[in-house]
């Protein structure tokens, strides 16, 4: 049946757009990165939904999804941080014989921890309704927001973002959050009913409010910051439970 290939095709479009985003970064055409990441995010959201609607869930689809996510939401955010760190240092060409030009590789720490996170996710039976630690798409959206702030000098914050210490700190904090034992709610709706989706609906309202107040790039990073803080507050308030590790 053709329908069983539809979700996997959507997943592969996620992977393709991740590759295109990388090409854009390394050929200094970063203005195209938001478009490719947006398509990857949509594909990542709808491939699982299509699989459920068409009733063609499969172990292969799950593996393909993780492999595609590793590129689009693992390698790409690392590459964006690499680009921003090099911008901060005024490096246009990386020379592997000159150690000082390799500092930007610190950005790829996020890529390494994204790989660990995705491997854990596939084995962790607790993460069926929500997440334990920051999910890789959210991490990517946060970094994309920083990139857009830097490119457009949104609110005059370019120099704040294009700062080595700030970018190193972001890389380390994001890497920790990716594998942290902190419950975070999922963005995906299991049904159209309000029951069981109150947190998600509330967060959608927060998202709309942020987009109405802030410029796009700043809104992206602020929304993910709110997501992390809200998840931590809900966890500490007992509304999100951290179950015993099962892997």
UniProtKB/TrEMBL annotation:
Protein family according to the UniProt entry: Belongs to the CDP-alcohol phosphatidyltransferase class-I family.
Gene Ontology biological process terms, A to Z: phospholipid biosynthetic process
Compartments (UniProt record): Membrane
Keywords: Lipid biosynthesis, Lipid metabolism, Membrane, Phospholipid biosynthesis, Phospholipid metabolism, Transferase, Transmembrane, Transmembrane helix
GO CC terms of this entry: membrane
GO molecular function, one term: phosphotransferase activity, for other substituted phosphate groups
TM ranges: 5-26, 66-85, 100-119, 131-154, 166-187, 199-216
InterPro entries xrefs: CDP-alcohol_PTase-I, CDP-OH_P_trans, CDP-OH_PTrfase_TM_dom, CDP_ALCOHOL_P_TRANSF_CS
Mode of membrane association: Multi-pass membrane protein
Superkingdom in the source lineage: Bacteria
Protein name: CDP-alcohol phosphatidyltransferase family protein
């Amino acid at each position: 049946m053709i329908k069983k290939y539809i979700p996997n095709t959507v997943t592969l479009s996620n992977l393709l757009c991740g590759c295109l985003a990388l090409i854009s970064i390394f050929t200094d055409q970063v203005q195209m990165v938001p478009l490719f990441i947006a398509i990857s995010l949509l594909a990542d959201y709808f491939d699982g939904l299509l699989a459920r609607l068409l009733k063609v869930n499969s172990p292969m689809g799950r593996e393909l999804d993780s492999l595609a996510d590793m590129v689009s939401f693992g390698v790409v955010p690392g590459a964006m941080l690499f680009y921003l760190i090099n911008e901060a240092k005024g490096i246009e060409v990386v020379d592997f014989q000159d150690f000082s030009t390799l500092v930007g590789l610190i950005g790829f720490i996020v890529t390494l921890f994204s790989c660990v996170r995705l491997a854990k996710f596939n084995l962790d039976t607790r993460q069926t309704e929500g997440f334990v630690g920051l999910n890789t798409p959210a991490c990517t959206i946060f970094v994309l927001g920083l990139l857009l702030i830097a490119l457009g000098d949104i609110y005059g914050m370019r120099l704040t973002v294009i700062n080595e210490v700030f970018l190193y700190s972001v890389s380390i904090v994001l890497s920790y959050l990716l594998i942290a034992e902190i419950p975070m709610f999922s963005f995906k709706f299991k049904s159209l009913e309000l029951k069981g989706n109150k947190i998600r609906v509330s967060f959608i309202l927060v998202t709309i409010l942020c987009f109405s107040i802030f410029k796009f790039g700043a809104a992206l990073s602020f929304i993910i910051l709110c997501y992390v803080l809200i998840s931590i507050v809900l966890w500490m308030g007992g509304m999100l439970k951290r179950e015993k590790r099962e892997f």
